[in-house]
């Protein structure tokens, strides 16, 4: 393609589908799997990911904001689309126009939706978010009985589901997760509804570590994209079939130069060569999702061998030390995330260098580079 970038994010659709089927099996035969495709599917491309998952049977999708849900519908995505972060009051009609499901956590939103439902002579199915210990969005368990009663009084509102979220389900031995699940179960008899209630509180960590919490529906996020919520510990502990990373990120060498000992590299000269050093200049910087915090820390793969970043990561460039890698030349492939030869750099490893988590790494690379999809 004319004018394409040196940098490419590659997304494996076969790995994505492998993970979806694996998580379906782990959640349980009668559990519906909701695919979290918010944040542009964690950097993998929301619309493309949703289309691919639809092909293999996924019928439920989760996004953060209303605009994401509308984009999915306008792209032709069928099934139920859940909006988790509420909505601007002025946009309430969109839930009816696009057949979307709101996750609500205040009575004001329910009242606005009720008003729109009455005006249209329709009903709208809502799910209520309950904060059982995440201390994030949601009503408190002790308020659920009265909240449910208020909802039951609103015309056009159907309480179709109750949701919560685990903060520590990535810890396989977490007593907190079971305690929180029991707290969640205790409030459910207070749900005043004519419908069968859809309960969902299990996230990726719970699907893998606490499948008994999956209820009628479970929400797959990071695991869908091939990573364990607890990082390398999860991979090491996995005794069954493993998740497959879906994303890789590659670039190429722009220039190779030899500099003598005592030379400062990049902004601020935070790295000084101690000997004659061969540097490869790469067209990847923090604009491309390579965090500046990775300066003098991260490694890349060139010719199947590791080369460390030297000096400060720039906006569009970084330098790596290839002194001990023979034959490196302009145009050689460079792997920032993924496999080359017998070695592999994972999102978990990069996250460790950043003091972060795989989620952030995937979003940074995926949302800042061209994406190529492969089977």
CATH C-level name of the largest domain: Alpha Beta
The shape, in one word, is elongated
Would you report the number of β strands? Answer: 20
Cα Rg? 24 Å
What is the correct CATH architecture of the largest domain? Alpha-Beta Barrel
First-to-last CA distance: 20 Å
- Count of discrete alpha- or pi-helical segments spanning 4 or more residues: 12
Number of domains: 2
Q: What's the rounded overall pLDDT mean?
A: 97
Percentage of residues in DSSP E strands: 15-25%
> What can be said about the biggest beta sheet?
10 strands, mixed
CATH superfamily of the largest domain, by name, is Alanine racemase
- Any low-confidence stretches, pLDDT <50, length ≥5? none
In the CATH hierarchy, the third-tier topology of the largest domain is known as TIM Barrel
What percent of the residues sit in helical stretches (DSSP H or I)? 25-40%
């Amino acid at each position: 393609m004319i004018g394409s970038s040196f940098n490419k994010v590659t997304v494996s659709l076969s790995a994505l589908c492998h993970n979806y089927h694996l998580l379906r099996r782990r959640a349980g035969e009668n559990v519906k799997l909701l695919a979290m495709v918010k944040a542009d599917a964690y950097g993998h491309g929301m619309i493309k990911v949703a289309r691919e998952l639809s092909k293999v049977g996924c019928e439920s999708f989760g996004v953060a904001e209303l605009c994401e849900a509308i984009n999915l519908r306008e792209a032709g995505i069928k099934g139920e689309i859940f909006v988790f972060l509420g909505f601007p009051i002025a946009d309430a009609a969109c839930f009816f126009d696009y057949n979307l499901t709101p996750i609500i956590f205040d009575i004001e939103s329910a009242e606005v939706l009720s008003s729109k439902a009455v005006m249209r002579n329709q009903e709208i199915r809502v799910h209520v978010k309950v904060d059982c210990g995440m201390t994030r969005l949601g009503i408190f368990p002790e308020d659920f009985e009265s909240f449910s009663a208020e909802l039951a009084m609103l015309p056009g509102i159907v309480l179709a589901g109750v949701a919560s979220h685990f903060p520590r389900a990535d810890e396989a031995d977490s007593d907190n997760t079971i305690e929180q699940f029991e707290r969640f179960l205790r409030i459910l008899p207070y749900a005043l509804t004519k419908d069968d209630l859809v309960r969902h509180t299990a996230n990726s960590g719970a699907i893998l570590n606490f499948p008994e919490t999956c209820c009628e529906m479970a929400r797959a996020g990071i695991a869908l994209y091939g990573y364990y919520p607890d990082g390398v510990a999860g991979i090491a502990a996995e005794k069954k079939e493993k998740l497959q990373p879906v994303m890789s990120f590659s670039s190429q060498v722009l220039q190779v130069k030899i500099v003598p000992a005592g030379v400062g590299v990049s902004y601020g000269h935070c790295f000084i060569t101690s000997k004659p050093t061969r540097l490869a200049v790469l067209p990847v910087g923090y604009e491309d999702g390579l965090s500046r915090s990775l300066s003098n820390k991260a490694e890349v793969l060139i010719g199947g061998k590791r080369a460390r970043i030297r000096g400060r990561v720039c906006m569009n460039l970084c330098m790596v030390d290839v002194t001990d890698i023979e034959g490196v030349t302009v145009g050689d492939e460079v792997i920032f995330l993924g496999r080359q030869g017998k070695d592999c750099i994972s999102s978990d490893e990069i996250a460790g260098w950043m003091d972060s988590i795989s989620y952030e790494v995937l979003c940074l690379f995926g949302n800042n580079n061209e994406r190529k999809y492969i089977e």
